[in-house]
Structure formats: structure tokens, C-alpha cells
Design a protein that fits this description.
Strand content: 25-35%
Number of strands: 13
Number of helices: 6
Helix content: 10-25%
Distance between the termini: 39 Å
Order of helices and strands: EEEHEHEHEEHEEEEHEEH
Largest sheet: 5 strands, mixed, barrel
């Protein structure tokens, strides 16, 4: 049986810390919304699900103007739940694997190609670059770096919200995506160049990163 995957992009949050009055998936960097940047990379993926909540109509309008076959999943309790709940809602009847992406980030084009070429479970991270990161603790096992824990106070890398897991492991949860993953650690680590946009300082750094050509 060939590798099968469902892409879930979490776009339900309000983005209060950013302070721009819009859900972060619609924030424009260099004239292009973050959600459209994701979809450009995902042209060859057949099963894409976007979880909406805050400003759902605007997200749906933006996405459908670019691509018509995206499935929208509503997280009606977006004010009280995290991305873990959004992913769990969208995981129903998914393909064998789920690739979970946050709608509030930029991913280096080369690394996005590596992500899409991967056919096994992984947890993504990058050198710490955000103002208030969750971190990954890792260790070496048989010559491979593995994620052993998530932490808000110490770790080797910043957790960037990107993971690929068997869909059967992602069906229940209300907190963050990493809460869904924690029972199944250790999981292979993949170092990725990303910029998450939680605060205005994150946004400014991300915009400069794009302007420099992702260097």
C-alpha cells in the first residue's frame, strides 16, 4: 500500500498576542497571507483540511479563492481550546498519516520539500527564535536524534508545531498538539528552518527573513 497522508492546517486561533486584529493565518508577509504560502507548497497533496474558528468566513474566502477542494473543519470552541483540539477534530476519517501545520508560521521552501518527502513519523523543531517558545528535549538513539520531551523552560530546540504522526494517535485532545504526541515519545526529530509569528517582534523578524530570501 502506498503512503497516504492528510494535511491539517490549524487556523482557528484569535492571535491576541500579535495585536493586528486578525487571525494569524491571514497575516500578510511580503504581500501574501500565511495560509496561501502553505497552500502553494501543498499543490500535490490531495487531502488538505483547514481548521477554522475566529474569522472563519475570511479564512474560507481566502482559501477557496486559491483552491476549491480544501475541506474546512470548524472548531466552535476555539476560544477555550488549543490546536490539539483543532487537529483532533480534523483527524476523523483521515488517511494513514497526518501532517499537522500551524497557520501562523513560515517554513523555508527547501525544508518544506523535505517535510513532504518524509514518509515516517517526526516532530519538527528549530533553533530557538521566538519570544515565548515551547522547547524540545532530544537525545541520540542509534545515530538518530529523537525527541524525548516538551518543556516550557529548557530544551535543545524550539517546538515549531510541525509533526507527522499516524492518524490513529491524533484523534483525542483539547490542549496543544504536543499533548497529543507526548504519550508516543520518543519520536524522530527533524530540524527545520521556520519562523512562528506570535508577537509583533516575531512578525518583524519573519518579514525580514522573507525579504532576505530565507537566509
Amino acid at each position: 500500500m502506498s503512503f497516504s497522508r492528510t494535511i491539517i492546517i490549524s487556523c482557528a486561533g484569535m492571535g491576541n498576542r500579535l495585536g493586528l486584529g486578525t487571525t494569524k493565518a491571514l497575516v500578510e508577509v511580503d504581500g501574501k497571507p500565511l495560509i496561501i504560502r502553505h497552500l502553494e507548497y501543498l499543490e500535490d497533496e490531495e487531502d488538505i483540511r483547514v481548521v477554522v474558528g475566529y474569522q472563519a468566513e475570511k479564512v474560507i474566502e481566502t482559501v477557496t479563492a486559491y483552491r476549491k477542494d480544501v475541506l474546512f473543519v470548524f472548531n466552535h470552541d476555539f476560544r477555550n481550546t488549543g490546536t490539539g483540539a483543532s487537529v483532533a477534530l480534523a483527524s476523523k476519517y483521515a488517511n494513514e498519516y497526518i501532517l499537522s501545520l500551524d497557520g501562523d508560521m513560515l517554513i523555508h521552501p527547501e525544508d518544506m520539500r523535505r517535510i513532504l518527502a518524509c514518509e515516517h513519523e517526526f516532530v519538527g523543531g528549530n533553533p530557538i527564535a521566538s519570544d515565548d517558545p515551547w522547547m524540545l528535549q532530544t537525545f541520540e538513539q542509534d545515530g538518530r536524534e529523537m525527541v524525548s520531551a516538551f518543556s516550557h523552560c529548557m530544551g535543545n530546540y524550539e517546538w515549531n508545531g510541525i509533526t507527522q504522526m499516524l492518524s490513529s494517535k491524533m484523534l483525542k485532545g483539547n490542549g496543544h498538539v504536543f499533548h497529543l504526541i507526548e504519550p508516543y515519545l520518543p519520536v524522530a526529530f527533524m530540524e527545520l528552518r521556520t519562523r512562528e509569528i506570535d508577537t509583533i517582534h516575531d512578525y518583524e523578524r519573519a518579514a525580514e527573513w522573507v525579504k532576505r530570501g530565507f537566509v
